[in-house]
Amino acid sequence: MSGGRLELRGLSKAFGGVVATDDVSLVFEPGTLSAIIGPNGAGKTTLFHLITGKLAPTAGQVLLDGADITGLDRRDIVRRGIGRAFQVANLFPSFTVEQALAAALMAHEGRTARLLGAFPPADIAARAGEVMELCGLTPLARTVSANLSHGDQKLLDIALALALDPKVLLLDEPTAGMGPDERWRMIDRVHRLWQARGLTLVFIEHDMDIVFRIAQSVRVLRYGSVLAQGTPDEVRRNPAVVEAYLGADHALDPAQ
Questions:
Q1: Residue 26 pLDDT > 80
Q2: Is the CB of residue 115 less than 8 Å from the CB of residue 103?
Q3: How far apart are CA 76 and CA 53, in angstroms?
Q4: Quick one: CA dihedral 108, 113, 115, 118, positive or negative?
């Protein structure tokens, strides 16, 4: 499935008197790779929750390829083509990598009753195998999910989301908790997956070296609002972004 066009129109979310997301309007064009950055508490994860239906917005709309998906059931949103990595080790702690992917595929297709029979069925096993190959998980096919390293669990999270063939894939800090080498291996894998699938990929990340290395565009949130957006160089030159978040270490000289 190719990438979809994700549009947010005036998206807001208030928890009592606290506004977590404030009138956010953004467009992510098909097949693009975009980063969302901002200080802790800027509303980045809340924004993902609103897109995926985990939270209902106070105001605004979420559109996928022009269709309004605001307020749909979370499963319907997944079926429409919005994917987000799951916490696989929590969902399937005793399943192997292959079994976890197969279970997700079967549940997505409403075939959970077959879990009581031969598992996984041949067609599902073949599709799980394709995703494992794409994600570099084939050598770990028979490893129990709970026994994977932190990095491999994160990769399985992404594989599970990819197995459902999304148009738009959302990744919330895919390199969190990893050491420097493991972090770069993960982001290289994510970049290759994006290229191979041609999907629209949006990721939240605190490591600015990663953001400015691979993102085509960057959106900056602060206090739940959009502070700035543009190419990595444009964002790094933006005085408001430098003052609010980046600091001098990651800023570009405006004259460059």
A1: yes
A2: yes
A3: 9
A4: negative
**What is the chain's alpha carbon radius of gyration, rounded to the nearest angstrom?**
19
CA triplet 17, 21, 25: central angle to 5 degrees?
A: 140
Write down the residue that tokens 């979420």 correspond to. Answer: 62
| Angstrom distance (rounded) from CA 213 to CA 248 | 17
Mean pLDDT of the chain: 88
The predicted structure's pLDDT at residue 246:
65
Give residue-wise pLDDT tens across range 117-137: 556 778 888 989 999 998 989
Token pair recorded at residue 35: 């980063």
Q: What are the structural domains of the chain?
A: 1-81+166-256 (3.40.50.300), 88-165 (no CATH)
Write down the pLDDT at residue 105: 87
- 167: exposed, middle or buried (Cβ count in 10 Å: 0-12, 13-18, 19+): buried
